[in-house]
Amino acid sequence: MKKTKEFLRRIFNIFAIKATIFFVRIFRKKVMAKCGHETYLKDVVIYNEIPKIITIEMEKPSYCHKCLQKMTIRCAWCGNPIFIGDSITINSPQDTYVIPKYAVKHNTYPTGLIGCTRISCCDMLGEMIGFWLPPGKVELTQEYKKASGLIKR
Ligand SMILES: [Zn+2]
Ligand SMILES: [Zn+2]
Question: Long-range CB contacts (< 8 A, 24+ apart) of 118-125?
């Protein structure tokens, strides 16, 4: 019974993603990105059946959506995807925390792990300190650049 429910949920999820892709792409033209691939200016990227609509703001974008999708990382704490353009947190793990293999470290803070800003994952909105941007780097917010030090969790 539980298996059937899970199966139906997945079928519905896949259908919802397909419908989203259809409506996002309809009547849109493609442009050539600098990475060498054709892309829509607005399209859906998917990671583990979790979709995100990414809009590229320029006529000559640097990357297509397929390349942007490859830059997706996973939150060091909840494992959910962090897509290009998503807001992020950086925290140091407690000594007892088992760091997952997919966790991404931040180069400026060797102990800092990159996390997502989902309400289910990070308690304080104040923890948001930057964005995940192409080709796979953190852009810190101006406020955070002025402040210093990481919050442990
Ligand atoms: Zn590309
Ligand atoms: Zn998370």
Answer: 118/75, 118/78, 118/80, 120/78, 121/75, 121/77, 121/78, 121/80, 122/77, 122/89
Same domain, 103 and 141: yes
Calculate how far, in angstroms, residue 33's C-alpha sits from the geometric centre of ligand 1. 7
pTM for this prediction? 0.86
Task: Give yes or no: residues 126 and 102 share one domain.
Answer: yes
Last residue in a domain, options 47, 70, 93: 70
Distance 31 CA to ligand 1 centre (A): 11
| pLDDT recorded at residue 100 | 96
